[in-house]
Amino acid sequence: MRVIAAVTAAALLAVTGVAATAAPAAEPEPKPTVVLVHGAFAESASWSGVVSRLHKRGYPVIAAANPLRGLASDSEHVSRIVKNVKGPVVLAGHSYGGSVISNAARGNANVKGLVFVAAFAPDKGETALGLSSKFPGSTLGETLEQVPLGDGTADLSIRQDRFRQQFAADLSPADAALNAATQRPIRDAALAEGSGDPAWRSVPSWFLLAGADRNIPLAAQRFMAERAKARQIAEIGGASHSVGISHPGAVVDLIVKAASS
């Protein structure tokens, strides 16, 4: 009787077209969006090599336009970009952009990691200007030119004839000249504005240090990375302050680690 019942049930399934199906495979978790924040004397396209490599790995990317007007206002601008992203975010900042992401991530629960690329990571009340002079080695001041803004502040740029030596010594002369011509000035008040409570105290961080940086001395970069208790500190000896352009693969490797954590 059991054999007959089994055969009858099988025949019924065949007639009605009902068949057992496997459960659908779970959808893969979406990759975090990577928000890249440039610093002073640079612009969004300075991340081009990083962006193209992240796209090849399937990551959505936003290269934010950092206003470079003031730390609080710049951070609020980037914070609004982060708030508009659906899903997790990895924030990466270069140079002064590190100060910005340290503040922009605060209060944004979707930020899962901070990546500092030859960048400032200030504590509360600290300034980019103060951190760059905390250890000897920065030669930035002697390369700057000013444009008064009429309110007692000034825009600062690196003289184009000094740009490669100061900012991009490991780029070709042609690439350094292109970056010198397209650099965006920073308002001097932004470099002297104190940071708020830094997000790196509660959000995991990764640091890439540039061994031949003439803007932020290597000792200052190490100090900030160690103080932040970074998950990983990578160092590229001989890399200029433009390490994100000269070594985009190393930047992407750290961002992917942050995104995968």
UniProtKB/TrEMBL annotation:
Keywords: Hydrolase, Signal. Residues 1-25 form the signal peptide. Residues 34-253 form the AB hydrolase-1 domain. Pfam families: Abhydrolase_6. GO terms for molecular function: hydrolase activity. This is Alpha/beta fold hydrolase.
